[in-house]
Specification:
231 residues; 10 strands
């Protein structure tokens, strides 16, 4: 398994006006993520796992300091690149393990055909298999949003603006061609955005100054929690 690499992760709820002002300043020193499209954005869809007791959701709500979540993630409705991710959090520190899976493997996992996972090459896939058996983890909700990411090499800083956070309302349709007609906004103010800042050991002062906006506060916003409002 890859060596653990903890990163700081800070989140802020910002208005559209704050986003415009902050983006203008960031673009002077940060570079767009090379994986984005012509508009500098991409669509992310994540399928989160939880059990019947809502273990992951309850740990988030209760403020458990050390917790984990499993999710399947793909981009721009393109199933040629899919990853299974395990994300661990300890307060503001996060650690992520990921493993590529095929579209066929993804569909088998979503359909409960999990036998192949126990002998998979990836330890992350094998761990999810064990927890699907013993903790009864199951695919619970689809989280969709548009991300605009920027990179600053010193400190390995990544700043992202996330918007249009949506969820599938009641259904179990998680893959392209099935989700768009059923998804709805997961936030009360759809025009607002989530600013995320990730960095390694330190945040360069120039970045700290650029994201400083009067009255915005760090918060523990969870896209997964927001999207579980409807079941």
């Amino acid at each position: 398994m890859q060596q653990p690499h903890y990163r700081h992760e800070l989140k802020y709820d910002i208005t559209y006006a704050e986003y415009i002002s902050m983006r203008s300043r960031l673009q002077r020193i940060m570079t767009p993520d090379p994986h984005t499209g012509e508009d500098g954005r991409y669509l992310i869809r994540s399928i989160y796992f939880d059990n019947g007791d809502d273990k992951a959701l309850r740990e988030k709500i209760d403020g458990v300091q050390k917790r984990e979540k499993f999710r399947i993630r793909y981009y721009n409705d393109d199933l040629s690149f899919i990853t299974l991710e395990k994300k661990m959090k300890i307060n503001d520190l996060c650690l992520k393990y990921d493993a590529p899976i095929t579209e066929e493997e993804c569909r088998r996992i979503l359909n409960g055909d999990t036998g192949f996972m126990k002998d998979h090459d990836s330890e992350t896939v094998r761990e999810l298999y064990a927890k699907m058996r013993y903790q009864m983890l199951r695919p619970r909700v689809l989280v969709s949003y548009v991300r605009e990411p920027y990179i600053y090499r010193p400190g390995n800083v990544r700043v992202t603006f996330d918007s249009q956070i949506r969820t599938n309302m009641y259904g179990r349709d998680f893959l392209p061609g099935e989700v768009n007609v059923k998804d709805i906004s997961a936030t009360d103010t759809p025009q607002d955005m989530i600013l995320e800042v990730k960095y390694d050991a330190f945040m360069p002062g120039i970045i700290r100054d650029l994201i400083r906006v009067k009255n915005i506060r760090q918060q523990a916003f969870s896209k997964y929690g927001a999207c579980r409002r409807y079941g």
